[in-house]
């Protein structure tokens, strides 16, 4: 998720610039995290909103997660670790471009899971109250520890948001359209977030992530991979931190994980 100082909502971090060399200790620490723990969930653990960089601003986003998958004859055994590194750049007039690099580790085996380019647009709107809309699209190759084979795909992520006083609701009715690989059907992967601003620097809320299967024939609810996260967002001096704890909605059905913990950080760079 890209970010900018657009309002007092805690979803938009302060635009305090951090030199690129100052990120080296942070990147090293997160790389060590990937080397020693495990992340997982077969979908991206972020809800897209209107927090995008302003013109000529750049940002690095890091999302690390740890998951415990259910026992499966075909899925990963033990913990799964993933790290997503994304670079975003603001073009102005609501447009941004970016590059994302996902990585994983399962049972001591590290793997680069792909490379995607992205573009995002958010229409002009009041920054503090009311409805807004946008769309994010990406294209490239990705795989996950949960799939036997990766592939090229196009992701289309509509952004529908609404602010009301200290409340903020965002919905992404997302589609993943395969261009190669075993699957040929577009997958419906909706996500949503509701949060309440506790003070100008902090918000608490819930996030929902899912995979409903083929968009043309969604799975029965108990067969879907759905998870609900309790999340805490905090503004720090030069970046934003998010902590989240996720639990499956269908532990005896379609959910692939027993639990998931995620840590996200957005850092502005020169």
How would you describe what is shown here?
The protein is mainly beta and 270 residues long. The chain has one helix and 15 strands. It has one helix spanning 24-36, and strands spanning 58-69, 80-92, 95-106, 109-112, 114-122, 130-142, 151-164, 167-172, 175-178, 187-188, 191-199, 202-211, 225-235, 239-248, 257-269. A twelve-stranded antiparallel barrel has the order 1-2-3-5-6-7-8-11-12-13-14-15. A hairpin with an 8-residue loop joins strand 9 (175-178) and strand 10 (187-188). The two termini are 18 Å apart. The model is unreliable at 1-18 and 29-42 (pLDDT under 50).
Q: Name the helix and strand elements from N-terminus to C-terminus, one letter apiece.
A: HEEEEEEEEEEEEEEE
Shape: globular
Contiguous runs where pLDDT drops below 50 for at least 5 residues:
1-18, 29-42
User: Terminal Cα separation, in Å?
Assistant: 18 Å
- Counted by DSSP, the helix tally is 1
How many β-strands, per DSSP? 15
Largest beta sheet: strand ordering: 1-2-3-5-6-7-8-11-12-13-14-15
Mean pLDDT rating = 84
Task: Output the structural class.
Answer: mainly beta
Largest sheet: 12 strands, antiparallel, barrel
> Strand percentage, roughly?
over 45%
Helix content: under 10%
Radius of gyration from CA coordinates: 18 Å
What's the short story on this structure?
The protein has one helix at 24-36, and strands at residues 58-69, 80-92, 95-106, 109-112, 114-122, 130-142, 151-164, 167-172, 175-178, 187-188, 191-199, 202-211, 225-235, 239-248, 257-269. It is mainly beta and 270 residues long. Strand 6 and strand 7 (151-164) form a beta hairpin.
């Amino acid at each position: 998720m890209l970010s900018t100082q657009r309002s007092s909502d805690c979803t938009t971090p302060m635009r305090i610039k951090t030199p690129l060399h100052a990120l080296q200790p942070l990147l090293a620490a997160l790389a060590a995290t990937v080397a020693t723990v495990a992340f997982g969930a077969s979908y991206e653990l972020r809800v897209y909103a209107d927090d995008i960089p302003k013109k000529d601003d750049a940002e690095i986003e890091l999302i690390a997660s740890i998951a415990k998958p259910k026992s499966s004859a075909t899925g990963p055994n033990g913990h799964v670790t993933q790290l997503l590194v994304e670079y975003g750049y603001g073009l102005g007039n609501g447009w941004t471009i970016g590059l994302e690099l996902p990585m994983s580790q399962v049972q001591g085996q590290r793997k680069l899971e792909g490379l995607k380019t992205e573009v995002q647009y958010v229409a002009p709107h009041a920054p503090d109250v009311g409805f807004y809309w946008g769309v994010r699209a990406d294209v490239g190759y990705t795989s996950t520890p949960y799939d036997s084979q990766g592939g090229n795909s196009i992701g289309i992520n509509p952004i529908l948001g609404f602010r009301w006083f200290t409340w903020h609701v965002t919905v992404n009715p997302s589609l993943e359209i395969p261009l190669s690989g075993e699957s040929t059907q577009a997958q419906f992967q909706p996500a949503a977030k509701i949060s309440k601003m506790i003070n100008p620097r902090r918000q608490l809320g819930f996030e929902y992530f899912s995979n409903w299967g083929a968009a043309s024939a969604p799975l029965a609810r108990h067969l879907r991979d759905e998870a609900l996260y309790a999340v805490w967002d905090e503004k720090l001096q030069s970046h934003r931190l998010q902590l989240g704890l996720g639990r499956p909605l269908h532990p005896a059905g379609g959910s692939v994980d027993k639990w998931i913990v995620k840590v996200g950080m957005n850092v502005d760079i020169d």
